[in-house]
Amino acid sequence: MPVSADRQKFVYDFTEGNKDLKDLLGGKGANLAEMTNLGLPVPPGFTITTEACKVYLAGGQEPPALRDEVTAHLDALEARMGKKLGQADDPLLVSVRSGAKFSMPGMMDTVLNIGLSDESVAGLAVQAGDERFAWDSYRRLIQMFGKTVLGVDGDLFEEALEEAKRAKGVTTDVELDAADLRTLVGEFKDIVAKETGRDFPQDPREQMDLAIRAVFDSWNGDRAKLYRRQERIPGDLGTAVNICSMVFGNLGPDSGTGVAFTRDPASGHQGVYGDYLQNAQGEDVVAGIRNTMQLAELEQLDKASYDQLMQIMETLETHYRDLCDIEFTIERGKLWMLQTRVGKRTAGAAFRIATQLVDQGLITEAEALSRVTGNQLAQLMFPRFDEKAKTEFLGRGIAASPGAAVGKAVFDSYTAVKWSRSGEKVILIRRETNPDDLNGMIAAEGILTSRGGKTSHAAVVARGMGKTCVCGAEELEVDTKRRRLTAPGGVVIEEGDVVSIDGSSGKVYRGEVPVVPSPVVEYFEGRMHAGADDADGLVQAVHRMMAYADRMRRLRVRANADNAEDASRARRFGAQGIGLCRTEHMFLGERRELVERLILADTEDERQQALSTLMPLQKTDFVELFEAMDGLPVTVRLLDPPLHEFLPDITDLSVRVALAESRHEPHENDLRLLQAVHKLHEQNPMLGLRGVRLGLVIPGLFAMQVRAIAEAAAERRNAKGDPRAEIMIPLVGTVQELEIVREEAERVIAEVEAATGTDLKLTLGTMIELPRAALTAGQIAEAAEFFSFGTNDLTQTVWGFSRDDVEASFFTAYLEKGIFGVSPFETIDKDGVGSLVRAAAEAGRATRPDLKLGVCGEHGGDPESVHFFHEVGLDYVSCSPFRIPVARLEAGRAAALGKGSSDTR
Known about the structure:
Blueprint: E1 11-13, H1 22-37, E2 45-48, H2 50-59, H3 66-81, E3 94-100, E4 110-114, H4 120-128, H5 131-148, H6 154-168, H7 178-196, H8 204-218, H9 222-231, E5 239-245, E6 256-263, E7 270-278, H10 282-287, E8 293-294, H11 298-301, H12 303-320, E9 324-331, E10 334-342, H13 347-359, H14 365-370, H15 374-380, E11 384-385, E12 392-396, E13 398-401, E14 404-410, H16 413-421, E15 426-430, H17 438-443, E16 446-449, H18 457-465, E17 468-471, E18 477-479, E19 484-486, E20 492-494, E21 498-502, E22 507-510, E23 515-516, H19 519-524, H20 538-552, E24 556-560, H21 564-572, E25 578-582, H22 592-600, H23 604-628, E26 633-637, H24 650-662, H25 668-680, H26 692-697, H27 701-718, E27 724-729, H28 735-756, E28 763-768, H29 771-775, H30 777-780, E29 786-789, H31 791-799, H32 803-809, H33 811-816, H34 833-847, E30 852-855, H35 863-872, E31 876-879, H36 884-898
Parallel strand pairs: 14-15, 15-16, 16-17, 24-25, 24-31, 25-26, 26-27, 27-28, 28-29, 29-30, 30-31
Antiparallel strand pairs: 1-2, 2-5, 3-4, 3-5, 6-7, 6-9, 7-8, 9-10, 11-23, 12-22, 13-17, 14-21, 18-19, 19-20, 21-22
């Protein structure tokens, strides 16, 4: 729907907004307004709303009223500051910065020092009493403006800067003097003229207007779209633009810029965490182009600013009730706050911080659940390096994002993506990353940089994606042109050599280091108690969050398990029963031939012989399963294999017969078998003779399975056990199919009850995995006591996809083009498949109010899908054993968020 530009307010002063206006002002603008309201030292400025961006993106032009509104707010800013934008003798300079609702670090554009020109640079030098500072600010403007606004290749500016340092014989840009920088400005202007065909703009208002438009455009830049897909951020939100009066950290040794966290974003521990860089502007810190000092060292350099910063950090954390990420600048001893936001953190830090805030009385248990995610819990269950293993140590950097990552060394993003698509695991190694490296960072198992700290681009983005990252490994020399890394002692790692990085310790190793299970998995397995061997408090934090979730959730969580071993593991992981036992998995290996004989039987005697052989095997399977899950429900799905899985391969059989005929060898049995297979051969077995259809076509098949279930349950009950079997008929498309099978099953159950003297209380239901079943769910519920949604097949049949084929053929293109935000096999398609689930649930319960509803497709373990199933009103989800903790946590989060807790993305 087009955004109306009539009678809207598109610009807000920092004094007008607050932190609750993120939809309108973006996260950065809303938080600048909030800090202004709190009386913190924020440079004056104003914010252009996301609504203005939406109008621009929809029509390619700014709203007609926007220019006048910007002019009015700029006039007010100039009056407050006592200077004009870009005036010759005492120029006002501003920054133009993006700021979407959700944090997208480095993905969109920022331009500093807007207002500088050939004329005003001299005035800035006089005003500051520092000629070097003025020319350094001017070269930064041309470099940032040229790259982000005019589209000049940023490497051209970097090469000119590197050449200037080489000519001077220095290694850092702060060692270049005013004359060097003046010359560099001339070279930068020549680059702009050559690459764009126009001179660098000297009109300060033109600079600002072009920068605003560039920020709007950057919302749809490739890296921003890729990041949004990765983080599942909607593409229609737009970005705000923040115009802020400049304060300068590059005015000498009593100035600087930094990033601070109110707690360690890597571990969650309380303390002083952050980076500070003297004589620098903000982008220098996050870009990682110079190694920073730790924030604690600022106390020795400028105690007054340090003390003020610590007080402000405490104020912000208490106000936001969460870990805050803060950007600040010190201008000649004066502290200025440039940004705050709820900080990105590692998975372990998220769990620790949430429980710490509960203990401090800042948040409730329900709010704590909103601060963690199932994906983060899954990260904590990944293996870690074996500390006892023999290793070849290469060096150590800053532990920026934890995990154990092993892969082949690559030195650019293109190679990382290319090798990853070929099935290789890679470690992306760079001096420092920048937003253009996002593709490679996503493709890599982990990221290693020789520059930058915990607040560098690599660290912030890696933490947000849950990628292992080691930053600032200064002792490792990274040569991207020669594609090699050199460690102390002369050890060289060439591209393609395997390296291992430990994001928890910062250690880097040559070769592959073996891994051991995560302590969180050991906890869920019952091999570690919360508090024991838990020096960093992670297991205790996970234990508490799981307790919160279990107390709060409405959805029960079951397991997809086909044998007693998986059932026992699932029970240790917290499963409340089995939601899907796939009986076809019981007939693989040596038993496969028995099913083949049954399917191909020509006579009643052959069929009965096959069934009588299968019956005791099935019963034994169920006895073991009911024992492992005693007292909990076990949903057993009757046989549902695509037919070809239990028949000889028609090509192999044809070749065998042809060879026998050519050699005049006996082949009557193979020929008879080939004729039978030809008769049953299907072009599309997934839509053929399977599920309930197989049970109706092969007499006695389902009756044998029902008898095995009933006898196993009776044996368990007579042994003082508590079996709770549920029999599920697969692939039903019409109620008549279910009625026929149900009638037969009830007859068999009654026979077993009479013979064993037991009351089995078995229930019968069906899978809803076909669109017709969902659309006629009201009729089907007349013959079913429960529904279990088979969302894997339902997704295939709704979309017309063959999962095994389409994921490899065109899903990548669909994801890149934005047709999918995420694969519909990974997260349920709420609009299509989800609408059928919702409609079937409502229709089924309208017929049978006590109808039990569950889901047994792998969507049952997907965090986002669990929230949908909670909303629809299902009774349980079922998933693979190792996904059970994730489903439990997300079921608790769904209940907590339903009660109004805020989801702090």
